[in-house]
């Protein structure tokens, strides 16, 4: 009897430890979120969001950074989403599950997912700027510097490579939720494979592609390391085009906290910018989580 | 023949509506150009991801390659000047302290007047490596000096530079910007390993226990609370976690542990641990749920309690998966740049004390690449560090993928 109670107590204690770890993680998330939100709440005004920085970055808003982030993720999505979707289609529809080539592609995708983001930055610099950009300059502009320097296009493409695995994984998951019977029915009615994919499989996995895009955008909006030397700029007085450097939210935070001379003076702006970035990624991730849970539910039904 | 060709062309032009009105002959497989092209394009794009991995390796390594080229001819005068200053400097380094360096160098500078300013700067970096706050506050001004300096240094970059750079890699000092640049990677590697250990000690137990809770003990409601929360944590940009560590965590931990430098490997390690939690948690949880239900039921039927089942049956069965989770966590921390840049203090020193500032490999690339001259030795060394990081994460991923997964499958299927 006593032994039994002791055993139960031990069991409860051990279960309590595991519960405690889970709750601690949740607490960390909540604390991080609240601290940043409370710190930046007062800054969340329309004026802050829509005006340029003034007085040597110590006052004013973050509009160019928001604009730059938006452009970055749009160009990035244009590049990453079609490529990711097509790769996912190949993996689920064309490749045989255990063929060497499918395995290699899967391994490559996972490798892309674990390569540190700073390596993408180096690659962007070495490949897009130094290799592609310089060659374009030499052949089209006679050697004058146009594309052989950091700019928005190269940064977006670098970011697209980084977010490619995110798209592939979530689209693949969604494609798998389309029942095999639907494909079989379509093929039995005489449709070709490509027609089946276009008319049956893809419409059934639109939400998956959406999830992938949202996750990719949220990842791309938050990453800083790949664009450190492929296009992000400290301060710009004008809004950027494709061939210009640009301001971006994450880099703005990094620069304000570590590189500026008057860190204390810009503290409200730092908290404000971090809060904006966090809210942005939070909303995006939240919608992706909801979408994904809906897809999984559908799969289980 | 011509009819068939025409038909094919028309279909290609007008697509599906045309096809719907057509009659289909199911007895024979017709060659359809649209289908054929679609398949080829899809295949080609899919192969691209393999090509990208390959290209990343090639181009990162390509930029670091010149450093291995030690036979590049350099003009004689430059070589002599270099050797001169190097020798003197090498002697001085043996003697030690920073103050001495500057004095001796003042005397030498008669012969090589040009590099006077550079050397002073090198000495300054040495000193500012110790007290953390100076590094941080003066960073923006320092960086301006750096760019102007490296221009002159790179002017003389030749074979001799490369040779000494390669030699200096095994040393302990990371002083890339001076007349006698030293690229000692040891301090950086030590710093990276130290921070990885700290963050793993923090993140691994926490996330593994939490995963165990979710997969064994938790009811459905708790699961639906914990899993999305961790997914949200995975979506936190690392720059936000870095900001949190820099502004809040550093102050908080300092007031608890009372250490000297505010930003150190401990703060950075905890922050990176927070970033690694979602990875370790998700993969561990996957591994735990992959353990067949029959294991659980058999253990309970034999009279084991729930926690005994959890710790002595399910956890051991999933060890390869947990191992993979930890490996990938290591990979994440190893390559984390923004948190390292913001919260570790960024001073390259050989010090085993967890409360001392460190500088990681990734942070070094992030901090110095923007200020370096293209094609310079320093630039090549940074790319070399990048290649090292790439190879390291590639190997970690390969091990996690093939070795661990094979083992896990074997164990679960009871072979």
Textual characterization of the structure:
The complex is a heterodimer of chains A (301) and B (415). Chain A is mainly α and 301 residues long. Chain A has two domains: 1-41; 46-300, Orthogonal Bundle (MetI-like fold). Helix content of chain A is 75%, strand content 1%. Chain A has eleven helices and two strands; from the N terminus they run H-H-E-E-H-H-H-H-H-H-H-H-H. Chain A has helices at residues 2-41, 46-50, 63-94, 100-114, 117-140, 152-177, 180-188, 193-204, 206-222, 249-259, 267-300; strands at residues 53-54, 59-60. A two-stranded antiparallel sheet of chain A has the order 1-2. In chain A, a hairpin with a 4-residue loop joins strand 1 and strand 2. In chain A, helix 3 crosses helix 6 and helix 4 (100-114) packs across helix 6 (152-177). Chain A starts with a helix and ends with a helix. Chain B has 415 residues and is mainly alpha-helical. Chain B has three domains: 2-67, no CATH class; 73-183, no CATH class; 186-412, MetI-like fold (Orthogonal Bundle), CATH 1.10.3720.10. Helices cover 74% and strands 1% of the residues of chain B. Chain B has helices at residues 2-14, 16-21, 33-64, 76-95, 98-108, 116-128, 132-137, 139-155, 159-168, 186-217, 220-234, 238-257, 265-290, 293-301, 306-317, 319-335, 338-343, 361-368, 377-412; strands at residues 174-175, 182-183. Chain B has a two-stranded antiparallel sheet with strand order 1-2. In chain B, helix 4 (76-95) runs antiparallel to helix 5 (98-108) and helix 10 crosses helix 16 (319-335). The longest helix of chain B is centred in the last third of the chain and has 36 residues, at 377-412. The radius of gyration of chain B is 29 Å and the shape is globular. At the A-B interface, helix 1, helix 3, helix 4, helix 5 and helix 6 of A face helix 3, helix 8, helix 10, helix 11 and helix 12 of B.
């Amino acid at each position: 009897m006593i032994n039994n109670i002791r055993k139960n107590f031990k069991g409860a204690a051990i279960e309590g430890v595991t519960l405690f770890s889970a709750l601690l993680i949740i607490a960390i998330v909540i604390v991080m979120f609240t601290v940043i939100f409370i710190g930046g709440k007062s800054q969340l005004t329309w004026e802050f969001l829509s005006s340029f920085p003034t007085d040597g970055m110590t006052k004013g808003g973050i509009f160019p950074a928001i604009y730059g982030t938006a452009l970055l993720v749009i160009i990035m999505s244009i590049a990453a989403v079609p490529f990711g979707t097509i790769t996912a289609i190949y993996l689920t529809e064309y490749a045989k599950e255990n063929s060497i080539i499918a395995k290699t592609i899967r391994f490559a995708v996972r490798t892309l997912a674990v390569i540190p983001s700073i390596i993408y930055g180096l690659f962007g610099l070495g490949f897009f700027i130094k290799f592609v950009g310089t060659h374009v300059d030499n052949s089209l502009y006679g050697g004058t510097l146009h594309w052989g320097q950091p700019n928005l296009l190269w940064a977006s493409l670098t970011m697209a490579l980084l977010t490619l695995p995110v798209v592939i994984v979530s689209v693949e998951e969604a494609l798998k939720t389309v029942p095999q019977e639907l494909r079989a029915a379509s093929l039995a009615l005489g449709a070709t494979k490509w027609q089946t994919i276009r008319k049956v499989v893809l419409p059934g996995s639109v939400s998956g592609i959406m999830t992938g895009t949202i996750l990719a955008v949220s990842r791309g909006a938050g990453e800083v390391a790949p664009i450190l030397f492929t296009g992000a700029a400290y301060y710009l007085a004008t809004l950027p085009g494709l061939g210009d450097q640009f301001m971006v939210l994450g880099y703005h935070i990094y620069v304000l906290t570590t590189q500026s001379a008057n860190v204390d003076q810009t503290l409200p702006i730092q908290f404000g910018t971090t809060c904006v970035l966090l809210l942005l990624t939070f909303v995006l991730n939240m919608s992706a989580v909801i979408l994904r849970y809906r897809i999984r539910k559908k799969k289980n039904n | 023949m011509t009819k068939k060709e025409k038909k094919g062309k028309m279909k290609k032009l007008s697509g599906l509506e045309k096809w719907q009105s057509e009659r289909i002959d199911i007895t024979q497989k017709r060659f359809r150009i649209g289908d054929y092209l679609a398949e080829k394009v899809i295949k080609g794009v899919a192969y691209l991801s393999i090509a990208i991995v390959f290209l990343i390796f090639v181009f990162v390594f390509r930029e670091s390659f010149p450093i291995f080229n030690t036979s590049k001819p350099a003009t004689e005068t430059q070589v002599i000047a270099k050797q001169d200053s190097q020798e003197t400097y090498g002697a001085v380094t043996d003697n030690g302290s920073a103050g001495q360096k500057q004095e001796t160098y003042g005397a030498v500078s008669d012969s090589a007047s040009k590099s006077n300013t550079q050397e002073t700067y090198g000495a300054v970096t040495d000193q500012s490596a110790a007290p953390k706050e100076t590094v941080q506050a003066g960073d923006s001004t320092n960086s301006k000096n750096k760019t102007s300096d490296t221009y002159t240094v790179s002017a003389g970059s030749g074979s001799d530079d490369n040779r000494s750079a390669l030699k200096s890699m095994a040393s302990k000092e990371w002083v890339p910007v001076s007349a006698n640049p030293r690229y000692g990677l040891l301090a950086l590697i030590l710093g990276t390993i130290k921070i990885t250990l700290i963050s793993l000690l923090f993140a691994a137990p926490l996330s593994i226990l939490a995963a165990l809770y979710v997969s064994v003990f938790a009811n459905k409601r708790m699961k639906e609370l914990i899993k999305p929360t961790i997914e949200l944590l995975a979506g936190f940009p690392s720059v936000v976690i870095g900001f949190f560590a820099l502004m809040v965590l550093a102050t908080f931990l300092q007031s608890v542990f009372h250490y000297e430098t505010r930003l150190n490997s401990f703060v950075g390690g905890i922050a990176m641990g927070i970033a690694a939690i979602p990875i370790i948690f998700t993969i561990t949880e996957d591994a735990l749920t992959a353990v067949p239900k029959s294991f659980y039921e058999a253990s309970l039927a034999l009279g084991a309690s729930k926690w005994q089942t959890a710790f002595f049956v399910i956890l051991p069965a999933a060890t390869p998966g947990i191992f993979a989770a930890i490996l990938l966590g290591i990979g994440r921390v190893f390559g984390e740049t923004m948190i390292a840049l913001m919260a570790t203090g960024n001073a390259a020193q050989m010090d085993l004390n967890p409360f001392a500032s460190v500088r990681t490999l990734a942070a070094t690339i992030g901090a110095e690449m923007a200020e370096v001259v293209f094609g310079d030795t320093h630039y090549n060394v940074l790319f070399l560090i990048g290649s090292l990081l790439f190879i390291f994460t590639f190997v970690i991923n390969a091990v996690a993928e093939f070795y661990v997964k094979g083992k896990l499958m074997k164990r679960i299927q009871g072979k």
